[in-house]
Write a structure and sequence with these properties.
CATH class of the largest domain: Alpha Beta
Distance between the termini: 36 Å
Number of strands: 15
CATH architecture of the largest domain: 3-Layer(aba) Sandwich
Helix content: 40-55%
Number of domains: 2
Number of helices: 11
Structural class: alpha/beta
Order of helices and strands: EHEEHEHHEEHEEHEEEHHEEHEEHH
CATH topology of the largest domain: Rossmann fold
Shape: globular
CATH superfamily of the largest domain: NAD(P)-binding Rossmann-like Domain
Strand content: 15-25%
Largest sheet: 7 strands, parallel
Strand order of the largest sheet: 3-2-1-4-5-7-12
Length: 334
């Protein structure tokens, strides 16, 4: 099947495109290249443009009438930046997505798989969250994701649009063949920061927040290998109609994580074990918009998608380190 992937030049988007190809499907990439590098698109079907460009969306539909579903990944994603640039985040993540969804509905491309975020969840004492738990997004970025979930649910109730919403936990690592990975020169992702500190590109790794109500005072996350996350998208696209029929709904939400909570200090310890030496550390207050964190209850992903993670935290760390050695060759910069 053909799958339209918005944001397909990005870190997760390009890895998902590869997973789709390995499963025998054809990704059609739509990306503005605002942040995603062109090299990650490789030789895939590619349209450079904005998700709110209705004329472009119509052209894509005309040239690929056999598109089965859309995976909507295109978004601004940096939490501290969202605090500084709220207008840009609401414009690009919310307003433009509404144009995309409306045009897709009009074109009859009514299956939408949406990339949402575990940062929506309210803090729980035990940190494990189910899809039915309370929400309390703590940054403009997270609030844009909640707004889009609500819009999709309302549109699915009122129109032919159908939505499967995947709430990602914390993707790390790179694709198995080291063809793509974290591309930002100064990555905001925790593992990218660790790799830079380990390779001497930063003088230390900063643990932001050491007085959280967790077992060691640092934030807790559910770190999922990006290849496992990409595989989850493939399964969700393949089972899209079946998932909604099983639940007898027009939209649904599914957590995508490992089911295990790891604190930042525990992540550092695992990283040092895989890397083979200590990483210089410093401590700092939480960044604006940072959440204490959570980890996924994965019962729904197993039941509805028949999917579970296959790769370990150590696998993800090893792939991130290997990508750190190769990224200059692929991207042309350190």
């Amino acid at each position: 099947m053909k799958v339209l992937v918005t944001g397909g030049a990005g870190y997760i988007g390009s890895t998902t495109c590869k997973a789709l190809e390995e499963a025998g499907h054809t990704p059609v990439v739509l990306d503005s290249l605002l942040v995603g590098p062109r090299v990650f698109v490789k030789d895939r079907i590619f349209y450079e443009g904005d998700i709110a460009d209705r004329a472009l969306l119509r052209r894509i539909a005309e040239e690929h009438p056999d598109i089965h579903a859309t995976i909507h990944m295109a978004a601004r994603i940096v939490v501290p930046e969202s605090v500084q640039l709220p207008y840009e985040y609401y414009r690009d993540n919310v307003a433009k997505s509404l144009e995309l969804f409306d045009e897709l509905t009009g074109l009859g491309l009514t299956r939408v798989l949406f990339s949402s975020s575990a940062s929506l969840y309210a803090l729980k004492d035990e940190f494990e969250v189910t899809e039915a738990d309370g929400l309390a997004p703590s940054s403009p970025y997270a609030r844009t994701k909640l707004m889009m979930e609500m819009a999709l649910q309302d549109m699915a109730a009122a129109t032919d649009l159908r939505a499967v919403i995947l709430r990602y936990f914390n993707p790390i690592g790179s694709d198995p063949d080291l063809e793509s990975g974290i591309y930002a020169k100064e990555p905001s992702h925790v593992l990218g920061q660790l790799v830079m500190a380990a390779r001497g590109q930063k003088d230390a790794f900063t643990i932001t927040g050491v007085e959280h109500p967790t077992r060691d005072g640092t934030g807790i996350r559910d770190y999922i290998h990006v290849w496992d996350l990409a595989r989850a998208h493939v399964r969700a696209v393949e089972a899209f109609d079946e998932v909604l029929a099983t639940e007898d709904v027009t939209s649904t939400v599914i957590n995508i994580g490992t089911g295990d909570g790891v604190t930042v200090r525990e992540l550092v310890a695992s990283f040092e074990r895989v890397f083979g030496s200590e990483v210089p550390l410093r401590e700092a207050p939480p960044r604006p918009g940072d959440a204490v964190g959570a980890f996924a209850n994965v019962d729904a992903s197993r039941r509805l998608l028949d999917w579970r993670t296959e790769l370990s935290l150590d696998d993800a760390i090893a792939s991130a380190l290997a990508w750190g050695e190769r990224r200059q060759e692929v991207l042309g910069y350190e």
